[in-house]
Design a protein that fits this description.
single chain, about 450 residues, alpha/beta, 18 helices
C-alpha cells in the first residue's frame, strides 16, 4: 500500500514576532491595572483580577488576529481591531471581581491607547532591524516566473523592511530567467522536500504559464511545515485588501489558511473527541449491550463485532470496529469488494444501518486515538491505493485523522457514491476546519440518526 510521507521537522521562521509582542501586551495590561490599586483593597484579589484581565486581553487580541505574522507592519492598520477589542473587553472586565468597578472603562481605554503606542514603537524597531539586516530576512521561495513574480522579487530586495529574502524562483517556463537576481529552478512535485532542503521560511505563489491546479496537491503536502504560504490573487488589481490579507508594496497577498494542523485549536479537537466518545460509550452502554445481545441471538455462531483494516492519518493502518449487520464472508472478499451488499444484510442489520447504530463501536476507535469524532471516513487499503492513483486529491484527505462522521457523510456521500466528490468534500472540511464546524457536523449527524437517514 502506498504511504503518505510528511516530515515532522519544522523550518525556522526568522520573521516571527508573535510571542515577544504577546508577552509585552500582557505585561502592559497587567501593569496598568495593577497601578489602579487603592489602599485598603484586597491585594491578592486585586493581583489575581489584573492577571485574569491581562489573559482575557491576550485572548481577545488573538481571536481578532492581532498576533498573526505580518509582512507589512503598521500600527495604524491595527486600530480597527483594537477598537473592536475595547468593545469586547469592557463587558468582560466588568464580570471580574473588582473591588471598585467604576474605573474599568477608563482602565480599558488607557490600556488600549498604551498598547497602540507600544505597537507603533515595536513595529518601528522591527522594521529598522529588518532594514539593517536584510541577510536575516525570511528565506523566501517564489513560485512563478512571470512579470508579477519579477516585481515581487525586486520589491523584496528594494524594501528589506518586509523581512523577506528571496533565495529561489521556481518555474518551468519563466519569461526571462536572467531577470531574476536569484536561482531559478524548474517545478518540483516534492515541494515540501524542497522547502526543507533549502530551509525556506516563506512561500509566495505568483503567476506562471502552468495551470494553478498543478500546485494544489504539492501545497497541501506542506500543511505541517512551519512556513507561511501566500498566494497572489487573480485579478489582484481589483481585489480589496481586508485584514486577513497582507501585501508587498502594492501587490496583495492572501495567506493560505492551514488552521487544521497548525493551531492550538487542533489540540482541543483531540480533547473534545476523547471526552465526547468516552461519554458516549458510558451513556449508550445499555443500547450497546442490547444490540450485542440481539446480534448474538440472531446468529449465535457469528461474532458480534465486525473488524476491518482501514487507513487513517498519514496512511497508518488501524482496525475499525462495527456491529455486524451482514452475513460473514471471507476477509479477502470483504476487504476488496465494492459491489452492492444489500443481499447480505440481515433483517436486524437493516434497522441498525438506517439509524447508523452499527457505527457506534467506533467510539472505541476514537478513545484509542485511531479516529476523531469528525473527519473523513476511513477506507480500506486496497481502495485507498486504487482511488489515490486515479484521483490526486484523494490522498490529501489523509492529512487528518479519520472520523466517525464527517462533512462528506452528512451530505450523503457515503457507501456507493462518487469518490471524487467525497475527496472534494473531505478536503474542503480540512481546509475550512474549526471547532464550530465540528459542532455543526455533529448536530447534523445526530439529526440524521434520529430521523433514520442512514444507509
Amino acid at each position: 500500500m502506498s504511504t503518505i510521507v510528511r516530515s515532522a521537522r519544522q523550518t525556522r521562521r526568522t520573521h516571527r514576532h508573535i510571542w515577544p509582542l504577546a508577552l509585552l501586551d500582557f505585561a502592559i495590561v497587567a501593569a496598568v491595572l495593577l497601578l489602579s490599586y487603592r489602599p485598603g483593597e484586597d491585594t491578592s484579589r486585586h493581583i489575581e483580577t489584573c492577571v485574569a484581565a491581562a489573559l482575557i486581553t491576550l485572548a481577545a487580541f488573538f481571536v481578532l488576529g492581532l498576533y498573526r505574522t505580518k509582512i507589512t507592519l503598521s500600527a495604524l492598520d491595527t486600530i480597527p481591531q483594537i477598537i473592536i477589542a475595547g468593545w469586547l473587553l469592557i463587558p468582560l472586565f466588568l464580570l471580574l471581581p473588582w473591588d471598585d468597578a467604576h474605573p474599568v472603562i477608563r482602565n480599558v481605554i488607557a490600556c488600549l491607547g498604551i498598547l497602540l503606542l507600544v505597537r507603533a514603537v515595536y513595529f518601528a524597531v522591527v522594521r529598522r532591524h529588518r532594514a539593517r539586516h536584510p541577510d536575516q530576512g525570511a528565506r523566501t521561495l517564489v513560485i512563478g516566473g512571470g512579470k508579477v513574480a519579477g516585481e515581487l522579487v525586486s520589491s523584496m530586495f528594494e524594501y528589506p523592511i518586509y523581512g523577506l529574502r528571496p533565495v529561489l524562483v521556481m518555474d518551468d517556463d519563466p519569461l526571462d530567467p536572467t531577470s531574476f537576481p536569484v536561482e531559478v529552478i524548474p517545478r518540483r512535485a516534492d515541494l515540501a522536500a524542497l522547502i526543507e532542503e533549502r530551509a525556506i521560511d516563506t512561500v509566495i505563489v505568483a503567476f506562471s504559464r502552468d495551470r494553478d491546479a498543478t500546485l494544489v496537491e504539492p501545497l497541501r503536502d506542506c500543511d505541517t511545515l512551519d512556513c507561511e504560504i501566500y498566494v497572489v490573487p487573480r485579478l489582484y488589481e481589483f481585489v480589496h485588501q481586508d485584514r486577513d490579507m497582507d501585501r508587498i508594496h502594492t501587490t496583495p497577498l492572501t495567506l493560505v489558511r492551514r488552521l487544521a494542523l497548525r493551531s492550538s485549536h487542533w489540540r482541543v479537537k483531540r480533547v473534545t473527541s476523547l471526552t465526547t466518545a468516552s461519554l458516549g460509550l458510558i451513556l449508550l452502554s445499555p443500547l450497546l449491550l442490547g444490540v450485542a445481545a440481539a446480534i448474538k441471538l440472531q446468529d449465535p455462531h457469528a461474532p458480534v463485532l465486525f473488524r476491518q483494516t482501514r487507513v487513517g492519518q498519514d496512511g497508518r493502518l488501524f482496525s475499525l470496529y462495527k456491529f455486524r449487520t451482514m452475513r460473514p464472508v471471507p476477509d479477502e472478499e470483504s476487504d476488496k469488494a465494492w459491489s452492492s451488499e444489500s443481499s447480505r444484510v440481515t433483517r436486524l442489520g437493516v434497522h441498525l444501518r438506517r439509524h447508523s447504530i452499527d457505527e457506534l463501536p467506533q467510539l472505541w476507535n476514537v478513545v484509542r486515538g485511531d479516529m476523531s469524532m469528525v473527519g473523513p471516513r476511513p477506507e480500506r487499503p486496497h481502495f485507498v491505493d486504487r482511488f489515490g492513483a486515479e484521483i490526486p486529491a484523494y490522498q490529501s484527505r489523509h492529512r487528518v485523522k479519520a472520523g466517525l462522521t464527517g462533512w462528506a457523510a452528512i451530505h450523503g456521500l457515503r457507501g456507493d457514491t462518487d469518490i471524487k466528490d467525497r475527496a472534494t468534500y473531505d478536503n474542503f472540511y480540512i481546509e475550512n476546519w474549526s471547532l464550530w464546524l465540528d459542532a455543526k457536523i455533529l448536530v447534523m449527524t445526530v439529526t440524521a440518526v434520529l430521523f433514520g437517514k442512514g444507509r
